[in-house]
Prior knowledge:
The protein is an alpha/beta fold.
Amino acid sequence: xxxxxxxxxxxxxxxxxxxxxxxxxxxxxxxxxxxxxxxxxxxxxxxxxxxxxxxxxxxxxxxxxxxxxxxxxxxxxxxxxxxxxxxxxxxxxxxxxxxxxxxxxxxxxxxxxxxxxxxxxxxxxxxxxxxxxxxxxxxxxxxxxxxxxxxxxxxxxxxxxxxxxxxxxxxxxxxxxxxxxxxxxxxxxxxxxxxxxxxxxxxxxxxxxxxxxxxxxxxxxxxxxxxxxxxxxxxxxxxxxxxxxxxxxxxxxxx
Length: 255
């Protein structure tokens, strides 16, 4: 009975930012747990990011395999910063066999993107995550990331670009909520607007929450009431739509 009950609960697949601390990310788990959802957190290390063929793509493939065999009917995706890249690799996998994954993709009912970082911001975001308090190491890592992107095109850069392309032209057309701020150099408003415009052009519903001043992956901490109001309103609207479509299905069966 407990298993059956868990199948009914929505599952949120969360993609934390790089090297996120558990006590920071758990604040987001609590939001969903308080709504009766379950949360599955999937993250990558800097090494897995640098070497996608043996790193991020393996994580993405394992996750899609798990979700494909999962009996949950309702899935949400909530990603932060470089988590958008990990989801991009998941989309590459989904896109490789759309017929096989049609049912899985239809189960994804909503997407939340918080400070999503595109490949163009990688050289800023990765060093900041790894060395937030050491200017010398941060600067050294910025130089290394630029070198890595130039040097390892076949084994790294082309995969980042493909994942970014799929993030923009996603086969998963569920409604999106985007959290962003104008003064975030890592999850830049310009890159997020490009993604939004692409999704708009495909007829996706995109809800947009942009602050003049905030901080990368810190919107919940700095603007708690506004963040929670936008997130709960989004989740409520998705739930309402799901209930209405279920009522339509039942009435069409003449029950």
